[in-house]
Fold these 2 entries.
Entry 1:
Amino acid sequence: MTSVFVFAVAGNVSAETLESALAKSYGNNPNLNAQRASVRATDENVAQAKSGYRPSITGTADIARSYSKYDSRTPPTIFGGGEQTTILTPRGFGLEINQTVFDGFRTDNSVRRAESGVLAAREDLTTTEQSTLVNAATAYMDVLRDTAILDLQRNNVEVIDEQLRQTRDRFNVGEVTRTDVAQAESRLAAARSQEAQAEANLRASIARYRQFVGVEPRQLAPGRPLDKLTPSSLDRALKIAFGEHPAIKAAQHQVDAAELQVKIAQGALAPQLGVTASVSQRYDTRIGNDEALIASAGARLTVPIYEGGQAYSATRQAKEQAGQAQLQADWVRDQIRAAVVSNWGALEAARAQIQAAQAQIDAAETALSGVREEARVGQRTTLDVLNAQQELLTARVNLIQAQRDRVVASYQLVSAMGRLNSRALGLAVNHYSPKIHYDQVKDLWIGTTTPDGR
């Protein structure tokens, strides 16, 4: 049976809905937008890794001033000799190109590792999106709950205040004792205290709503659980979670990246082959006003023999980190399983609590009506009436809490399964696609401007 919040504002076509609040959170939440920026930054790792495939080109220019004095210790003649002075301005410019041909597959593995990092970052973004939507839904339902509870507490104060007035009137005519008046006064003070606490709780919930949704709550419409996304059994929920949860996928991508890091470290032990070419124009190199054009090309093979053990240590370290990543992935899987089981139990408990609270309200209303009638004929005391009123208030609060818990538990369960996202919820938003930015930057050779113009 679908449960609707009876304490929500009804009949207001301009009321904020849970879906519209989630849409605002999806588009405006700073934490979620920061995670999107982090994914865009991670995309650049692929472009940086691919730079290993490309040549590096360096331009140079230099200028100097030289002075030399030569004394041959012989008298000067028309053929030379004596003291000679030479002043030159050696200068020139050139271009050098270096291209790696083979680096032990380090560039290949670096690109693949960067791609795995991008995929992991995307899954982390999905996890953050889920967390943001759960927090927004929880804040929405908390405001509804606390608003309804505050209304109940205010009504309770009015009821007890009227009860106190009637008790004082009966005391004045001798029907009850001073004790009855004191009991009513005590309950009124307690009711006012509960009203003040309810107001404080509502203010805190409004602050959290503003934090996660981005605006102040206004006229919230009823909230409904995600029955359409909830599977029929716990086993089905676990199967979905193990296959789709972004945290599990992210952890597996991290395992892939760690294993590729092992290959990158091992690549440092392989031979390195590269080619280089350069051309330069020189002036005043030996005598005044001379010129020289110098060009060269060649290949260089470097074979590492021993570099102090650094590469061997880095390889062993990478292997340990790969093992750590695999253990972490197993831990994440266990965490997801625990979250699904816990939230499944919470959802089932909330459903049962709603039914129990509704039955409790019916019984408490009947009991209160009977106690009031019996008190009028002297068969019940003022304390009995106050107790019956408190039981009815407690039952109504319990129903409100259970209804809130059912909605929140359904969102938490769908999140634990990995299916809480803007598309599954049908939110009216521009769905963010991290692939767009990735395609824009992964093969860029030059340029410092980001795709959005910064």
Note: Confidence is low (pLDDT under 50) at residues 1-13.
Entry 2:
Amino acid sequence: MAKLKQAQWPWHLLTGLILVVLAASLWFATSMIAYEWRWNRVPQYFVYQAEESQRAAELAEVATLTVQGTQTEVTLRSSEGAEQVLRVDSDSLQLTVGDEVEEGDQVGVTRHWAAGPLAWGLLTTLWISLAAGAMGLLIGVVTGLCRLSSNPTLRDLSTVYVELVRGTPLLVQIFIFYFFIGTVLNLSREFAGVAALALFTGAYVAEIVRGGVQSIVKGQAEAARSLGLTAGQAMRYVVLPQAFKRALPALAGQFISLVKDTSLVSVIAITELTKSGREAITTSFSTFEIWFCVAALYLVINLPLSQIASRLERRLAQSD
């Protein structure tokens, strides 16, 4: 075992050197175009301190000011004796007791942490991926089994669906689903986007399921039938679990592709991660910084998916 480690470390060192060279090449490329890095502009697009103005409801006079930690409680009293109590951050208050304020005048602001556009875009990408993935898996399993059915109608319809979806671009399908089907059925853009992604994913999952089931020798199903199981029970308890083990790497790859494909729903005005990145670039003018952050966020989603799939694959292999 010690000799094996000694034989492997030069290759790991070579890997590190290659990565260093790639990073140096990237830095050199940006220096050639005289690009000025402004990473300090990026954090506000993840989280920032939002300000909420506190305004007087009517003509009034500042009656009392009560400091409570970092905030100040301001009591405004009108000429009729009506009181309005506002709580503002102390450093934003520019009034003293006895000052008069008009209706709508800003007394101060309160600050709180809020999620930025990249954080909201990441959340949108996550829920779209989860919803479309779950629906796509269900559609794919049913369609894959229909492709193997002895019923000609089920087999033909599932074949038409798979070939139609796989033979046309996803972007075109999103446009058709939203502007045609979505308009006729009065669907929201979010539902249309998720449905289009689910149908697209389901077609590929169907072929993965079909290939996985066909890779299981027929003797497995025949043995299950000889033990008294019905055809449906044999498929559910004997064939499908084995097919799932073999299809797991392909399924993981398909769901990783789905996460990246969610960037296309921005064409129907859904503000997911990529669209949020584009909007952040228009206000920050930090093109490379924002795109690197967007790419890193996609990696944050997809790398755990790859690791979970690999670990599940090894665990299922041990049960054979």
Note: The chain is about 65% helix and 15% strand.
